[in-house]
């Protein structure tokens, strides 16, 4: 009885490993293609990707407004944790007086000991995208 069980278990194992080994190179490539990160792979029927998959990867940098809405607004629209609010000229005037390079630096590096963490927590943001978001906030707050 136990032997028979063990045998059928073995048979199942062999069958599944046989299936695994039967993948052709073409099937393997197809799988690799399917599990690529979004942006590198093409969804079936998408006529734009066959032409230029490379341009999908090198997407345009986001605008300051986009970055602000995605990553900064949570605190800077409400004043959460003491963040200077977007549009609040009084709250920003002293900061703007420090000069843009200082604000770019704190935008990217954060303000230690406050809620202003590095890049406002937007780790996918490039430095330039954070600078653009700082520009956007400063332009709208004076
Ligand atoms: C989790 C909340 C939070 C998020 C999200 C956040 N900030 Fe801030 N930010 C703060 C706080 C709090 C301060 C005030 C820090 C202080 O006390 O000087 C601040 C201050 C700043 C300042 C002024 C710093 C200075 O030197 O006076 C800039 C510039 C700034 N944030 C940029 C950004 C940008 C750009 C983003 C989005 C990419 C962002 N912040 C997202 C909380 C946040």
Helix and strand arrangement:
Elements: H1 2-21, H2 25-34, H3 47-51, H4 53-57, H5 64-76, H6 89-96, H7 100-109, H8 127-139
The protein binds heme C.
Give descriptors for this structure:
Cytochrome Bc1 Complex, Chain D, domain 2; elongated; 0% strand; 142 residues; binds heme C; 8 helices
Please explain how this structure is put together.
By secondary structure, the protein is mostly helical. It folds into 2 domains: 56 residues, no CATH class; 76 residues, Cytochrome c-like domain (Cytochrome Bc1 Complex, Chain D, domain 2). 59% of the residues lie in helices and 0% in strands. Helix 5 crosses helix 8 and helix 7 packs across helix 8. The protein binds heme C (HEC).
> What is the class of the largest domain in the CATH system?
Mainly Alpha
Ions, cofactors and other ligands present here are:
heme C
Mean pLDDT: 83
Main sheet record? none
Which stretches are low in confidence, meaning pLDDT under 50 for 5 or more residues running? 52-58
Q: SSE order, as H and E?
A: HHHHHHHH
Short structural summary:
With 142 residues, the chain is mainly α. The protein has eight helices and no strands. The site of heme C has 28 residues, from α5, α7 and α8.
